[in-house]
From TrEMBL, chain A:
<comment type="subunit">
    <text>Heterotetramer of 2 MoaD subunits and 2 MoaE subunits. Also stable as homodimer. The enzyme changes between these two forms during catalysis.</text>
</comment>
<keyword id="KW-0501">Molybdenum cofactor biosynthesis</keyword>
<dbReference type="GO" id="GO:0030366">
    <property type="term" value="F:molybdopterin synthase activity"/>
</dbReference>
<dbReference type="InterPro" id="IPR036563">
    <property type="entry name" value="MoaE_sf"/>
</dbReference>
<comment type="function">
    <text>Converts molybdopterin precursor Z into molybdopterin. This requires the incorporation of two sulfur atoms into precursor Z to generate a dithiolene group. The sulfur is provided by MoaD.</text>
</comment>
<dbReference type="Pfam" id="PF02391">
    <property type="entry name" value="MoaE"/>
</dbReference>
<dbReference type="GO" id="GO:0006777">
    <property type="term" value="P:Mo-molybdopterin cofactor biosynthetic process"/>
</dbReference>
<dbReference type="InterPro" id="IPR003448">
    <property type="entry name" value="Mopterin_biosynth_MoaE"/>
</dbReference>
<comment type="pathway">
    <text>Cofactor biosynthesis; molybdopterin biosynthesis.</text>
</comment>
UniProtKB/TrEMBL annotation, chain B:
<dbReference type="Pfam" id="PF02597">
    <property type="entry name" value="ThiS"/>
</dbReference>
<protein>
    <submittedName>
        <fullName>Molybdopterin synthase subunit MoaD</fullName>
    </submittedName>
</protein>
<dbReference type="InterPro" id="IPR016155">
    <property type="entry name" value="Mopterin_synth/thiamin_S_b"/>
</dbReference>
<dbReference type="InterPro" id="IPR012675">
    <property type="entry name" value="Beta-grasp_dom_sf"/>
</dbReference>
<dbReference type="InterPro" id="IPR003749">
    <property type="entry name" value="ThiS/MoaD-like"/>
</dbReference>
Amino acid sequence: MRVKVQEAPFDVADEMRGFGAPGTGAIVTFTGVVRNSDSGNLTAMEIEHYPGMTEAALAQIATRAQERWQLGDVLVIHRHGRLIPGEQIMMVATASRHRKAAFEAADFLMDYLKSRAPFWKKEITADGAEWVAARDEDEAALDRWSPEL
Amino acid sequence: MDVLYFAWVRERIGMPRERIETQAATVADLVDELRSREDRYAAAFADLSALRVALDQELGAFDAPLAGVREVAFFPPMTGG
């Protein structure tokens, strides 16, 4: 299991080299990209985080995924700092014997790190800067995985 | 103890962290103490339902006790991913 919190860009192919374990039959990767606004006016996305707690929270979420599914490997990378639209912001990867566990675990990791990892996004446009509000749907998405917290 | 602020809480209060000597028994007591200090704190803590708290880097509740806690952080709901 690897968890990385970094300002620098990452390369999915580099990260996937050597990923998995003996017996792995399926690898799922998900990459999140900084999405421009509907009007295309987003200049940048600034991502703040809580050094220390961020790494611990991501490791805790990854550990929960490993407890719940038979995973040969797990990787979570999340960037912080100033990113522009189109840049890769985060990725998760899961390895398992069969694809269902890998897909489900990746979905679980995404749901949890959206509302349980201490990151905050701020959208910068020509008109100013605005913190992104948490969405009720993101919180509701966690219910799917109950009895997890 | 060290008190940390993130995102718009940090912006409203005007600093990322400070050291506070307090006898507050719970997080809620600490919030009351901070609110009574200055308007910027009152503004940041106006609506607790819009805030989350972490105690020693673990998510916690506003009625949690502060005994033994070294670091308290206040921030809005997280928006990772």
